[in-house]
């Protein structure tokens, strides 16, 4: 049942991304082009997402455990360090260059555009590179 709800949630997300036009990188890039062909629709999409998240968390926190999981997965790190700032900057630069964020690129695979697949391959390569560069050594119990 957990997988059914995960699939359903992903489908809702994908339909929302498609309906809002966020699978089109030109629409995203036009949001960043304030002096040219500025398109504020990304701000409306993000505002809607924040509103849904705000109320969704209010409902979720009323529960003692998630409906389909053992416990809530809450990040414990609160420090703003070089790695967080660097990763955020890298994400923003990539989003500004490609016009895709990883969340919107996954449903955009359905468009059949090679640029989307290339972008996701680059994202996966970044994940692997990050693991190789910042892997923490395993300490033995002995």
From TrEMBL:
The record, for Pfam families, names: DUF6691
Q: Mind listing the UniProt keywords for this protein, alphabetically?
A: Membrane, Transmembrane, Transmembrane helix
- Where are the membrane-spanning stretches? 42-61, 89-110, 116-133
InterPro entries linked: DUF6691
Superkingdom of the source species: Bacteria
Report the protein name in the record.
Putative transporter component
Origin species, per record, is Ruegeria atlantica
């Amino acid at each position: 049942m957990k997988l059914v709800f995960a699939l359903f949630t992903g489908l809702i997300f994908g339909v929302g991304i498609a309906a809002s036009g966020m699978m089109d990188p030109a629409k995203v890039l036009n949001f960043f082009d304030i002096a040219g062909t500025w398109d504020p629709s990304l701000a409306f999409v993000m505002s809607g997402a924040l509103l849904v998240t705000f109320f969704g968390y209010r409902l979720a926190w009323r529960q003692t455990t998630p409906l389909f999981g053992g416990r809530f997965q809450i990040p414990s790190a609160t420090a703003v360090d070089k790695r967080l700032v660097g990763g955020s900057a890298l994400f923003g630069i990539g989003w500004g260059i490609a016009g895709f964020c990883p969340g919107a690129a996954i449903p955009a695979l359905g468009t059949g555009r090679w640029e989307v697949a290339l972008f996701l391959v680059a994202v996966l390569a970044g994940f692997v590179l990050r693991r190789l560069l910042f892997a923490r050594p395993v300490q033995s119990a002995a």
